[in-house]
Input
Amino acid sequence: MNKGEVVLEFVVHYSWELFIAAEVLSLGSLILFGIFRYFLNKPKLGVLFILLFLFLLTAEALLGVYVYEQTGEISTFLIVITIFVIYACTFGIVDFLRLDRWMRSKIGKMRGVELLTEKDYAIMRRNKDPKYIAKKYRISSLIHLVIFLVVQTIFWSLGTDSWQEMKSYLTDLSWLEQGEAKNSPYPNETIFSIGMIWSLVFVADFIYSWSYTIFPSKG
Output
């Protein structure tokens, strides 16, 4: 076995450890970004740590692709890393921008300087508008619905042989009472557990999201 093969085998064998290490480094890069941006007032240096975060995120995605190519299995590792990457590329961006505004608001008050722009204040006012909040949650719930259906379809395709078989599981839900992958549309216990937990989370999230439209706040 040559050095290249040893390295590749190492990557597959220690995939979880490499992923966790990348997440720890990603968290560290965000902390350093905050220190340079908010406390040391050096935003340009802070950008370097954001670039490091993006590099690590890309490395995680490539790690997942490589492990899948080598094993040919949709394992727990692959599902976890996919969820992390999807979150970072979607809702994570929104959460990061919201946190950035909040940090600039608090630290600006501490330092007695204005760190927010007029655009920031406009966004903050908009985020308190009940109509905007309801619309935002409707859109996010529909995006979640599409992702949920696509991924669940992939899961079911791995545990069934045809669309007709999938349809039979939809019309006869008795397999849910058994609480196990056997005689279900899922290929194994791991994916069955993930599919069931995600289904509960999806239902709760969907109801919560649409509550803002059905029971709007007066503002």
